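Backbone shape codes:
***
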Amino acid sequence: MTGRQVAWVTGGSAGIGEAIAHTLAEAGFSVVISARDEGLLRDTADRVGADWLVCNVTDRAAVNAACDKILERHGRIDVLVNNAGHNSQRRKWDELDPNEFDAVIAANLTGTFNCIHAVLPQMRSQGGGRIVNISSVAGKQVNPDGGVAYTIAKHGVHIMAKMLNQTELANGIRACVIAPAGVSTRAHDWRPEELRQYMLQPEDVARAVRFAVEQPAHSTVFEIEMSWSPV
């Protein structure tokens, strides 16, 4: 058990999740990362200096077990960063696969719900906590490029945070949504290099997360929308 504040980062084995874990560790948090790939988790945890556990956020029983394990090891969860998620390559109505639709909704929306639902009792009992949902500009607009399932899921993630704040601010629990435009990760390897060089970097999103979670108790950042432009 540690005396430091504890941050749980889902989808923490690579990309944006790894950058968030590294940034929060530098900020003094005891960081726990989770994802589905044990090998990647081990390697990332070694680089970041984080604890780790295998967890598929779409599996509610596994999420509840992961939450219990973190509490057993660390005694508390002060920050939850819902970063796990993915998009389908077949995104538009004329090419959409219903099974892929279900998978995208499960990873981005239901998975976020599962993790929030798991940590809320502990956060209430300890008198507070911070929840950060990593969303997208697709959660702020309707654009065919974002895809049917992903756009629906990310809009839902925004609404989930708003509804959390409506009831849980009274319990000291604050929710924030980070909505970046395209971030240069492996998921965007298919984009032209001349475009990727201008995109947001995972570290940019990580700095926004740190800003949100380090606000004092009297200050709540509800949303951070991020864009990129040629420099």
